[in-house]
# Entry
Amino acid sequence: MTDQEIVELINSSLAEEFEFDLGGMTPETTLFEDMGLDSLDVVDLVIVLETAFGMKIREEEAIRKIRTLGDIHSFVIGKKRQTEGA
Amino acid sequence: MLLRRVVITGVGVVSPFGRGIESLMAALLAGRSGVVRVPALAGITGMRTRVAALATGVDAMEIPRKFRRSMSNMSVFATLASLDAAAMAGLGEEQLGGGRLGVSIGSTTGSPQTMEEFFRDFGADNSLERMKSTLFFHIMNHSCASNVAQALGVTGRILAPSAACSTSSHAVGYAAEMIGLGKQEFMLCGGADEFHPLTSGTFDIINAASVAFNDSPTSTPRPFDRDRDGIVCGEGSGILLLESLESALGRGAAILAEITGFATNSDPGSIANPDAACIADCMRQALADAGVEPDQVDYVNAHATATAQGDIAECAAIAGVFGPETPTSSLKGHLGHTMAASGALELAACIEMIRRGLLVPTLNLDNVDPLCAGVMHLKGVNERQVNTVIKNNFALGGVNSSIILRRYQI
# Structure
């Protein structure tokens, strides 16, 4: 997958799960303030990403530092590249 | 007896006839059935019944995702009905969140649909890795009560009675007692259930579900009829807004009716089969609670689900307590058996019958079973002054309940 395809899959998966308008989703969008997610949603966000990309990320320390959509894009792209390089 | 008078100032319903009391009453008075054929039931091995009364006119998207994410269908039904009841009563955030309003809403179980979905997924590989954070809120026994409280911003007491078909009668009765004791000023109370094949199957395997009318769904169930062959399961929600009389008068609310008595008892004779003497005792206790004599009751709204044993036992009890001249009918022919919703849904209809002076007959009652004789069965809409009504509900598990409803009089 290209980086753009990863970003698009992340955005569409989250838009469907959390009922967001895709057009309003930018890398700067914050998960808690802008998207209104809470601690329960973050649990489900991890499941959505694991299902969409077929990888386990629940125990990743980096997950806890994610604040924006851009953070998710970078994290998933990094994980995908790491997996591909392994 | 209630230590303070308790009145009803709001009603909300989600039924097989859609959302709102108007659509429910229009269907009941027109003699329409909400029962439909459910093709999916044919794909279940061992399931003989193919019919159900499914809720219509529901748009879950009206509820913001923040609240909807923790709801299965039953909580959606209960929330929409609660919103309607609160709106009819003219309640705003001040009353809903003021701590003087509580919630008493139950269901038969937590969401069977969510449980099925979870265990299907879990069973595939014995994994919890796909379990959603909100799963518990769908399947917990107080799912409807908590979800309604969250969605409406309620800060008072939470009660979630669960007694199968007696659930919402319990919820209403206990809510009235809570107001009567002065513990709360308002109560949103009632019940909800969502249809699932497990519910129909429960009755089917004990030969208590209707199986003979799969090709003519509106002909069943047939309470009291000689050709009745069992229950048709339904879904929906009925919610009443109860309020102390002082509160209602103080804020100038329109009073729909009054709850004057409630009784419930246990029948340890059988966990499945009702007993006429125990039912009669429950009704007598409710009458005593309200301080009325049997001859003051204008209408009996029977539980009557169209099972062989239940209808006969209830008729014997009604005949014994009220004699042959008190109009009696069951709404199950129209609505099916909406389970935990049935008590409050049918109470909502009873309130309207009092207000309109119109009694709804039993649908599909063509030929009264001789074993159900001895009471005045209504076969057509009956116009008369109705002041006092008794509403019965009886549940698997040996749980009887009766509520006395009265036209509001100063």
Notes: The two ends of chain B are 18 Å apart (CA to CA). The domain at 6-250 of chain B is CATH 3.40.47.10 (Peroxisomal Thiolase; Chain A, domain 1).
